[in-house]
Specification:
Length: 164
């Protein structure tokens, strides 16, 4: 039984702190507004942690942002208005998933472009290796005329006679 208690303590200590990020005093009494606030909080970056949403972060600034989101929602703002307000105040960095725009095009199109480019290079390399008529230098192999073949045979025979 003692091992079970130790195992439970280890699990409790290693479990993410995000379960305790949203404090009970932040929760709105209206379940619909609270659901909207939680959805929005998962889309917003904690400016301290930077790789967590404000919904998952226990940082004081994340708490302030969660409270601000809830204040804006109770004030009658739509979800988009809340996001626009926070972007205007903190910049697009506050969004965990940046909007697609001309200045974020490289962020969105870069990885698929690199993947497609790499696939094309692999296909081109495989295609070049499969061509049987290509010489090692990449040029077409020329066929000798009968006169050239006879001259080559004569040169080879004379070369063999000189080797003896």
């Amino acid at each position: 039984m003692r091992w079970l208690r130790h195992a439970l303590m280890i699990v409790a200590l290693l479990s993410p702190a995000c379960a305790w990020a949203v404090q009970p005093d932040e929760v709105l009494s209206d379940p619909a507004l609270e659901t909207r606030a939680r959805v929005l909080s998962k889309e917003l970056r904690c400016l301290v942690c930077q790789n967590q949403s404000i919904d998952d972060s226990a940082a004081p600034l994340a708490r302030d942002l969660r409270v601000l989101v809830r204040e804006r929602l109770t004030g009658g703002d739509s979800d988009q208005q809340v996001l626009d307000y926070l972007v205007a105040r903190y910049g697009e960095f506050v969004l965990l998933k940046p909007r697609f725009a001309w200045h974020t095009a490289l962020l969105w199109l870069g990885p698929p472009g690199v993947l497609i480019g790499g696939g094309l290079v692999l296909l081109l390399t495989a295609w070049r290796r499969r061509r049987p008529e290509a010489s090692p230098a990449g040029r077409e192999v020329e066929v000798l005329t009968p006169a050239e073949e006879a001259r080559l045979a004569g040169l080879m025979q004379s070369g063999q006679a000189g080797d003896r």
